[in-house]
């Protein structure tokens, strides 16, 4: 028996941050998911010119982010499960400072607009493969910002406690990123 589930889009509390459930077809052999269908994306007003795709393998408990490069991202997992966290740091955005979390399993995607921080923690036993599609190529030194994922003011309840001394759980760069309050101060000082 063949089961077809059409794609859906759910809007979040962060303007432009969308949770997408792609079209999937399941039969006795398994499931096929449409991660990118240019015509469907365009029909729904979503960036349809992805230029780069990256796949990361992250061990259970590993935390990556919060990063907001000058690009739009479409993210999902190929295997495993992550707790995704997103923070709007776009100047002048009506949802500035808003935090949204999403449980991402295969078949759940999140469209992350430029200027919104993207981070995740791998929560499945073993390893999780996280897939990013970017609307422009990543280059060292490209514009962007980052936030400290453990900033208590963000109130992100990471499911697995993070040992800040364990580099398998969090990088030095992410650990030392500015808090939201520090980012606001930096921006004010730069004006």
Fold and architecture overview:
β2 and β3 (18-21) form a beta hairpin. The model has no long low-confidence stretch (mean pLDDT 94). The strands form three sheets. Strands 2-3-11-8-13-6 form a six-stranded antiparallel β-sheet, with no helix packed on it. A five-stranded antiparallel β-sheet has the order 10-9-12-7-14, with no helix packed on it. The chain is mostly beta strands and 191 residues long. The protein contains three helices and 14 strands. 28% of the residues are buried.
Q: Helical region count? A: 3
Largest sheet: 6 strands, antiparallel
Strand content: 35-45%
**Looking at the structure, what is the overall shape?**
globular
Mean pLDDT: 94
Please tally the β strands and state the result.
14
Question: Distance between the terminal alpha carbons, to the nearest Å?
Answer: 61 Å
Key phrases:
five-stranded antiparallel β-sheet, 14 strands, globular
Please provide a brief summary of the model.
This protein has 3 helices and 14 strands.
Topology:
Blueprint (H helix, E strand, L loop, with lengths): L2 E3 L2 E4 L6 E4 L2 E4 L2 E4 L4 H6 L8 E8 L3 E7 L3 E7 L2 E7 L10 E6 L4 E4 L3 E7 L4 E8 L9 E3 L25 H4 L4 H11 L1
Antiparallel strand pairs: 1-4, 2-3, 3-11, 4-5, 6-13, 7-12, 7-14, 8-11, 8-13, 9-10, 9-12
């Amino acid at each position: 028996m063949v089961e077809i589930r059409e794609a859906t889009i759910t809007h979040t509390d962060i303007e432009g941050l969308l949770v997408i459930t792609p079209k999937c077809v399941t039969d006795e052999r398994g499931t096929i998911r449409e991660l990118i269908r240019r015509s469907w994306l365009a029909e729904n007003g979503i960036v349809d010119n992805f230029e780069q795709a990256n796949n990361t393998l992250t061990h259970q408990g590993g935390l990556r982010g919060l990063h907001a490069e000058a690009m739009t991202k479409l993210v999902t997992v190929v295997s495993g499960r992550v707790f995704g966290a997103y923070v709007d740091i776009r100047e002048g955005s009506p949802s500035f400072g808003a935090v949204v979390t999403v449980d991402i399993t295969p078949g759940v995607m999140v469209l992350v607009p430029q200027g919104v921080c993207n981070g995740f923690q791998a929560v499945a036993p073993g390893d999780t493969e996280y897939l990013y599609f970017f609307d422009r190529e990543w280059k060292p030194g490209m514009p962007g910002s980052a936030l400290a994922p453990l900033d208590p003011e963000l109130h992100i309840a990471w499911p697995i406690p993070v040992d800040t001394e364990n580099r398998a759980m969090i990088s030095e760069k992410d650990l030392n990123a500015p808090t939201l309050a520090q980012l606001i101060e930096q921006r004010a000082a730069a004006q």
